[in-house]
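Incident log, structure service

09:12 report received: a user says their structure output differs between two submissions of the same chain.
09:20 pulled the input from the user's history:
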Amino acid sequence: MNTVRKLIFMGILLPALFITSQPVYPGQGHAPKDSHAAKGHKKEKKAHHKSGGHKMHLFTADWHDTLNDQQKIEVDEMHLQLMKESGPIKAMIKVKKMELAVLATDEKADLKAINQKIDEILALKRQKMQKRFAHIVEMRQMLSPEQRLSYDMRILHRAKKSKK
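09:34 re-ran on a clean worker, output below:
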């Protein structure tokens, strides 16, 4: 019976996880009819970081606003590289978390297998963090000292607000 569950998971539930991980709505950017927006609830839009939307800096210009054309190209290339490297890792983490949930809800849950799956998830998270911070170091190297001030403030601000 356990083999049947695994086959069902791998054949039906796992592909469904990938399909449902990014909601797709009809039209361009329109929410479904039963969304908060349709019910009259307004949700503040977060300004995209390239639009100069965040104004946490009192005296220094936001680092995005001070980039020259060459730096803009370098930043885009670095961000693209980071997305290419971290995207598959994020997807694997989701899959491993689903596998962990299946293991934990099994009739004869095996703690050794559960702990091994947790170790796999943590190893993937470690990889993701290492790539992110390597990216931060690389970004800092291409910025001027004035731009670094604003960039560093953003990094520290994000660390302060991050999930615990």
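09:41 both user submissions now match this output. Likely a transient worker issue. Closing.
09:42 reviewer note: The domain at 68-164 is CATH 1.20.120.1490 (Four Helix Bundle (Hemerythrin (Met), subunit A)). DSSP finds four helices and no strands in the chain.
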